[in-house]
């Protein structure tokens, strides 16, 4: 039994007229008649008695009608469900616990504009849990500010790079106004969220007996501990601080927090997941092209596009998709090698 045969039979049962049923199904009458005859052969009996204006369903046709209606509706529902899955109706993300979802506002906005019915599911976990979500296929994409390891199938793109600063109580000895070396922080109690990679990197610069850490669950808990003058914290530079807390300038160590997007190389993605990854892939290529453009000597404007610098008759070069003349000059070759 074919689905189109069921559809033809349902149209015939509603009209009791082969000509009108064929028009409803957008086929010729002979094609519809052959399909009904094939269905009758498979069912083992006639489904309709054909008597011009008195055509009617046989007992077999009447008994099969509700069954075939449910079959057809179920098949249509299955096709619709499959279509939504293929089209990427759901984007499944896994974020490490310290990633701010706000850094994904722009790509999510573009995704919703492109797929208005998309649903976004977000899971949280440690680096090990997020990597396992990604490996098992439970999520399409992972966002982490911690290295997810050296699994050879991981592809990654930079999501955000956020400058951090030291925050302390206004009565803390560091709050005198002058910048302090980052090395001086190591002996202080560092208040942080679990799995904070920047705090971990900073603590690893000191001796084991100097590592004093106070892990809390939320940002509000960090503010409470700072108000108690129980230590210092590393927070985004542009974060709003409550009264009584101050930012402290540091020297000697770049306080910078990088977040990366991870996806499994070679795994088929839904349309929504593919569009989400493409946003960061395009931005990565654009940033790489800009860096190469600024490295080219003899250019007045550093914002000029690389495309404007490339003569015609060029061939593709490298992963950036840039084009260089054949053969390149020594000066151009030196600029590429140094980029």
Write a compact overview of the structure shown.
The protein has 339 residues and is of the alpha/beta class. It has ten helices and 15 strands.
Can you walk me through this structure?
It is a single chain. With 339 residues, the chain is α/β, with parallel strands linked by helices. It has ten helices and 15 strands. Strand 3, helix 5 (105-114) and strand 4 (119-125) form a beta-alpha-beta unit.
Characteristics:
D-Maltodextrin-Binding Protein, domain 2, two-stranded antiparallel ribbon, 15 strands, 10 helices, 9-stranded mixed sheet
Rounded to the nearest angstrom, the distance between the terminal CA atoms is 64 Å
Percent helix range: 25-40%
Strand content bin:
15-25%
Low-confidence stretches: 298-339
Q: Which sheet architecture does the biggest sheet show?
A: 9 strands, mixed
State the CATH architecture of the largest domain.
3-Layer(aba) Sandwich
Mean pLDDT: 79
Helix-strand makeup class: alpha/beta
Any idea what the radius of gyration is? Answer: 32 Å
CATH topology grouping of the largest domain: D-Maltodextrin-Binding Protein, domain 2
Give the CA-based shape.
elongated
* Beta-strand segment tally: 15
CATH superfamily of the largest domain: Periplasmic binding protein-like II
CATH secondary-structure class of the largest domain:
Alpha Beta
Order of helices and strands: HHHEEHEHEHEEEEHEHEEEEHEEH
H/I helix tally: 10
How many domains in all? 4
């Amino acid at each position: 039994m074919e689905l189109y045969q069921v559809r033809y039979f349902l149209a015939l049962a509603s009209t009791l007229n082969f000509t009108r049923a064929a028009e409803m199904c957008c086929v010729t009458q002979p094609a519809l008649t052959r399909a009904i005859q094939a269905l009758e052969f498979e069912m083992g009996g006639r489904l309709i008695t054909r008597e011009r204006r008195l055509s009617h369903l046989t007992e077999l046709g009447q008994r099969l009608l509700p069954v075939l209606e449910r079959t057809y509706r179920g098949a249509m529902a299955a096709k619709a469900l499959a279509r939504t899955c293929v089209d990427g109706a759901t984007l499944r993300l896994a974020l490490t616990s310290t990633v701010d979802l706000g850094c994904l506002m722009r790509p999510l906005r573009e995704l919703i504009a492109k797929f208005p019915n998309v649903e976004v599911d977000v899971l949280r976990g440690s680096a090990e849990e997020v990597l396992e979500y990604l490996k098992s296929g439970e999520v399409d994409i992972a966002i982490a500010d911690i290295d997810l390891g050296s699994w050879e199938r991981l592809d990654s793109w930079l999501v955000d790079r956020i400058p951090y600063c030291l925050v302390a109580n206004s009565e803390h000895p560091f709050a005198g106004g002058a910048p302090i070396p980052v090395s001086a922080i190591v002996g202080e109690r560092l208040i942080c969220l679990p799995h904070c990679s920047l705090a971990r990197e900073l603590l690893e610069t000191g001796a084991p007996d100097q590592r004093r850490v106070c892990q809390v669950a939320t940002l509000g808990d960090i503010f409470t501990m700072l108000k108690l003058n129980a230590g210092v914290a590393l927070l985004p530079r542009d974060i709003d601080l409550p009264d009584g807390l101050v930012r402290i300038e540091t020297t000697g160590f770049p306080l910078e927090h990088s977040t990366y997007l991870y996806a499994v190389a070679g795994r088929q993605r839904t349309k929504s997941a593919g569009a989400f990854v493409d946003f960061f892939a395009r931005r990565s290529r654009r940033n790489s092209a800009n860096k190469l453009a600024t490295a080219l000597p003899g250019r007045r404007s550093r914002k000029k596009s690389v495309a404007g610098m490339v003569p015609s008759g060029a061939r593709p070069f490298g992963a950036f998709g840039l084009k260089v003349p054949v053969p390149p000059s020594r000066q151009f070759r030196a600029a590429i090698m140094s980029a």
